[in-house]
Amino acid sequence: MKRWLASVKAKRLLWRWGLGAMYCLLLVPPVLMGFLVATFRPLDDGLLFTLFASWLFPLFLLLLLLWARESPVNRLRTLGERERQTAFEGLTNSEREKAARQFVQALNTPYLGDGSDEVHRLAVEGLGRLKAKNFVNELVDALEHPRANVRATAIWALWQIGEPKAISALIPLLGDTAEVETEKLPLPFLPRVCDYAAHALRRMGKRVLVAAFEKALKGKLSTAAKAHLRQHRQEVVAGLLKALNSDEVTIARNAAWALGELGFVEALPPLRRKAQSLVIPEELRIECGEAVRKLEMLVYLPRAATGGGIDTSLLPRPAVGDAVNTANLPMAAEAPASEGSEPKQA
What we know:
Elements: H1 2-6, H2 8-39, H3 45-67, H4 72-78, H5 81-92, H6 96-107, H7 116-130, H8 136-142, H9 148-161, H10 167-170, H11 193-203, H12 207-216, H13 223-230, H14 233-244, H15 249-262, H16 268-276, H17 282-299
Helix pairs in contact: 2-3, 4-5, 4-6, 5-7, 6-7, 7-9, 8-9, 9-11, 12-13, 14-15, 15-17, 16-17
């Protein structure tokens, strides 16, 4: 009995019964008043007040029930799978702007790990179906969701919207090798999050970048591929670090090798931790150590000196004739006067 009362179906049934009872109670006082007036006698003030109060009470309860009625967001959050899907379809078919705000409200509910990930996934899918360009930032934040299904759906939604500003947020997901439940996701059905990111970036005009990243994870890097990857240095580093944490040892090894080959010195701290860890496979630890040695050589290379930061105000300067004070210098001696000549008067 307790389990049934706690179920969603019981709550909906009890709510409908309560609503029906309130409607019936609202009809009782007017009907009773009409019956008494028509049958017996004119009603005194006390009886009229009693009937009016008995009519106000069920009216108040009815308004309270209507106010507490579950919103579409609550139905999306609390009902079973079939009812949740029905609520989702109802939201997507309603007014676009209002539905988008309700989907964002559902997406902002805390993730508790008790089925709320499916609520978040439906909210992200709804924003993608509505092509809600005003809420691209919320979809970008969903790319960091703990559940792979939500991340893959957020990639799909950003691809549907086609916002160029989202490209920099999608590139790091090329290294996310987490598997997804394809039967719950919108088309196309792809096995991993990185496959969704690659598909979306290709459709958004980044085919060369995707090809270069995929070559890096296969242990192959040409000069042209290195140049393309360095154009998006920050995003590519984040993607390779995600691949470095992959459960697939081959992909993680190739990611460590690529970080060393590309000279991304900002990846040194996580590579050092991997190289010193005893819980990862030995081959991955060795590859991380090799990448650390390559990058440390780049860090400690001497750099050419530049004169821009040197203070030259105290250095000796060459003498300039105009700037020399000659007043105190000895005068040249005059020639002696010749015979017969008179000395000059002072």
